[in-house]
Amino acid sequence: MKASMTLSGLLVALIAVFVGTPALAMEGVPARFGQILVDQLEARDADDGTVAAWSANAWYGGDINKLYFATEGERLMDRGGETESLETRLAWSRAFAPYWDWQLGVRRDWQPDDPNRDWVSVGVMGVAPYFFETEANLFLGESGHSELRLEAEYELLFTQRLILTPEVEASLYGKEDRDLGIGQGLATVEAGLRLRYEIRREFAPYIGVHWEKKFGDTADFARDHGEDTSDTMLVAGIRVWY
Amino acid sequence: MTTSFSLPRRRFVQGLALGGTALGLGLTPTQLFARQGQTGAPELRGNQFQLNIGAADVNLTGRNRPATLVNGSLPAPTLRWREGETVTLRVTNHLPETTSIHWHGLLLPFQMDGVPGLSFDGIAPGETFTYQFPLRQSGTYWYHSHSGFQEQSGLYGGLIIDPAEPDPHTVDRDYAVVLSDWSDQDPKRIYATLKKLSHYYNFSERTLFDTLRDFREKGVVRTLKDRHMWNRMRMSETDLADVTGYTYSFLVNGHTPAANWQARFEPGERIKLRFINASAMTIFDLRIPGLDMTVVAMDGQPVKPVRFHECRLGVAETLDVIVEPKDHRAYTLFAQTIDRSGYARGTLTPDPSLSAEVPELDPVPLLGHREMGMGAMDHGAMGHDSGAMKTMDHSRMNHGGMDPGDMNHGDMSGGMDHGSMNHQGMSHGTQDGMDHSAMGHTNHDTNAAVPFAVSADNPDLPARQSATEHADSEYGPGVDMRAMSPVPMLDDPGIGLRDRDWKVLTYADLEYAHGLPDSTQPEREIVLHLTGNMERYMWSFNGIPFADAEPLELYHNERVRLTLVNDTMMHHPIHLHGLWSDLELGDGRLLRKHTLLVKPGEKLSYLVRADALGRWAYHCHLLYHMEAGMFREVRVVPRHQHHTDEESRS
Fold first, then answer.
1. Chain B: residue whose CA lies nearest to A101
2. What positions does the domain Plastocyanin-like occupy (chain B) (predicted)?
């Protein structure tokens, strides 16, 4: 209850800040744009069946200030389907350097069986030298929980339309969360390699591999539950944006 | 390059042979006029005009697409006026949105200049605005909308003012050749797309195979070092045009390459071609294989004739040339885009059944050190030339957006040692008592220093030591690079044209035909850096977009120097309304222009006589750069106001 009040308060503050900083174009009309990018929408051939996974974001705003929304999750498609994880994040994104935005926001993890987890997020996002799309976020949750998430992605052009995207993501936790089977320290590393063909820039089917591995106590918890600590999956999906 | 053209793609590039043929299926002539635009511009002569701006469809690619037209034609009618007369134009807006017409390059009262927000409020839907002004000049100009993206969707046309006195260059035939870019996409959509993914239209990006080829041809180490520089900077070396042949069809007088606009001639005739680059975004490299051209005017103003074979024409520039084909054969007017993603084409022919070969597009040129604002450092022949060095401001060398440590100077073709360059025999900026004006403008016929305009009220005018110094406002999210050592490039044919076997026209070849049009002695110097962030698609002057800027004030009748430093990797055609821009060519020579194409990494200066009071637009003529904020208001105000201001301040 208290947490959700904090969240909505933050949200209101966030939107107020965003709306209160208009960028004016030549004719006095606010120049605002928006984009919805479904970066990954794919089927994964996992050990325990077919998993649908997605990673998408959207933004709306001017050159400097944007309202940013991101979601990712996984859903087991077999046996009637079950959402394994669903995460949503809403942030105020502000450009502070030519290639970098910082982001301040809130995140909610929708747990199918356990109580939802809420977080406040602080992060940076941008293009590092060598064109690495980079994101680093620190999430601060209730009861002293914290997560540091680091992501990097690269685009390698075979042709103007055939593009290979290696990416890697690591999650580190500041405190054990037994309910969710997460240990302290480095918990998971995910890596992917996806080859897409841009029929249009906005529409690209892809195939690839996705690899996940659990580390440390997180791996031990998984073993205790009789789960594998690493999984390599073939994936097929589409990348679309508007 | 691994791009292969599929058939539909090829058709898209070349367009339809049908052009804008109106296929009136069951429509009355009135309906047809209202709904279907014609391609090809009729010529309207006189001094009284009724122009109707309205929406219509045109079919350039096989699809009917909405356009914004004057009197139903694409381009708008070519208007033919006579110097000394007063013209009256009643312009009626049939669009559901505000419109305007700006008379590009004309000297007129600012209320007639047609820029909504500065000259007037614009022409509201259903309303008629009457433009009336005396013609104080002659030559080739053009007109276009200054509202939204209407210019991109067809609202542009040629403007020819015949001289009051007989033209010294008599010709047998006289053609206006309006070059433009057309997209089936809504221009608002193009702009929004650039904001989302700025390289969306660039299909010449470097691929893995290009790198492998470079490994073979240049060696692994050299390739990796080159890659290191570009990758560290997060820049694309093929970023020559924001919007390309991927979406554009390039037109000659409203005709696609397949529709092939034709101009007739008889062998032995003298023909004047008035090239007008009326594109929204496209810089053209223009030539007529098999035929040399002689330039007689640029931007409407007469120049001393120069024979040449190819010329780069920036957006909004005009070029009058005379050709004298002797043979009974056809010639191709070939205008390929700077990024080589397409071309506009027409034919000069004695017989409509003849056409000439269309040249292949050149390979995509790659941006280099010169475009990065690393000045003379990449060409060995010039690298150690003291003249070139004089223009480099070494005191600022390490203050650029690029870390010199990343640049592998030792591996550049000149083999220069950066360390020794910085410290041996070089004065470090103005502290050593170097005369800035003599250093920055080596061509002055006077050593008198011209003071920089400084104003505490205007962030565009901070105190500065040199023109190449970067203002504090250039350090922010909107600026992705700053040229370390911009240099004059007036005699540089430009990227992609440097290795030609034939004469490429440059600004340095040209000079106002009748000596000096005005004084070469400015009273003040205003410096503006052209800035941007390609990734975010932000464009500005001095890192400050129009929305955040103060007007630049000029004192009535003052002679002022405007110095532009291009801190971006792109060309920018910079246009000042209402006042001449007299480009300083050196040796006291001037070239009178209204639009100046500034190369990446270039520094140039021009003199302006502020002889027309009022509020004028000053901007990059790439439509989407202007919209993004590469725009200023210039206010010419009575001089006494300023003297009072300054006295009260001091």
1. B477
2. 56-164, 225-336, 520-638
* End-of-domain residue from the set B165, B189, B210: B165
Distance from CA of B581 to the nearest CA of A (A): 23
CA distance A147 to A135: 14
What's the CA gap between B543 and B362, in Å, rounded? 34
Q: How far apart are CA B471 and CA B489, in angstroms?
A: 22
pTM assigned to the model: 0.87
* Cα–Cα distance, A107 to A120 (Å, whole number): 6
What kind and span of H or E run contains B642?
Answer: helix B639-649
Tell me whether strands B343-349 and B261-264 are parallel, antiparallel or unpaired: parallel
Assigned token pair, B32: 């047809």
A29 in reach of chain B (CB within 8 A):
no
Report the residue from B117, B205, B234 with minimal CB separation from A157: B205
Question: What is the average per-residue pLDDT within B588-608?
Answer: 97
Specify the long-range contacts of residues A122-127, CB closer than 8 Å, at least 24 apart. Answer: A123/A91, A124/A100, A125/A93, A125/A100, A125/A101, A126/A97, A126/A99, A126/A100, A126/A101, A127/A99, A127/A100, A127/B234, A127/B535
Domains and CATH numbers, chain A: 2-241 (2.40.160.40)
Q: How far is B115 from chain A (nearest CA, A)?
A: 10
For B517-550, write each residue's pLDDT tens digit: 999 999 999 999 999 999 999 999 999 999 999 9
Please list the residues that pair with A121 across neighbouring strands: A105, A139
A93 touches A59 (CB < 8 A): yes
Domain boundary residue, one of B125, B149, B165: B165
Give the residue-averaged pLDDT of A22-40: 71
Does any domain span residue B229?
A: no
Per-chain mean pLDDT for chain B: 85
Strand ranges (DSSP E) for A100-199? 100-110, 117-128, 132-141, 146-153, 156-157, 162-173, 185-197
Q: Which residue of A has its CA nearest to B191?
A: A33
Is B204:B238 a contact under the CB 8 Å cutoff?
yes
A24 touches chain B (CB under 8 A): yes
Which residues of B are less than 8 Å from A100 in CB distance? 477
CATH number, domain with residue B606:
2.60.40.420
Please count the other Cβ atoms lying within 10 Å of the Cβ belonging to residue B215.
14
Written as one letter, the residue type at B637 is V
Number of domains in chain B: 2
Q: In what order do the strands lie in the sheet with B581-586?
A: B538-541, B524-533, B559-566, B603-609, B581-586, B589-593
Residue B96 counted as domain residue = yes
Q: Under an 8 A CB cutoff, do A95 and B401 touch?
A: no
What dihedral do alpha carbons B345, B349, B352, B358 form, nearest 10°?
-30
Residue B181 within any structural domain of the chain: no
Long-range contacts of B224-228 (CB under 8 A, 24+ apart): B225/B408, B225/B411, B226/B408, B228/B406, B228/B408
ipTM: 0.90
Q: Which residues pair with B70 in a beta bridge?
A: B53, B73
| Residue A89 to chain B, least CA–CA distance (Å) | 20
Asked if A160 lies within 8 A of B2 by C-beta distance, the reply is yes
Tell me if B234 and A127 make a contact (CB, 8 A cut-off): yes
| Interface residue A35 vs chain B (CB under 8 A) | yes
Mean pLDDT value across residues B58-63:
94
Of B2, B234, B546, the CB nearest to A131: B234
- Tell me the one-letter amino acid at B82: R
Peptide bond into A129 cis (omega under 30): no
Query: Do B65 and B182 meet the contact criterion of CB atoms below 8 Å apart?
Result: no
Q: Which domain holds residue B43?
A: 7-165
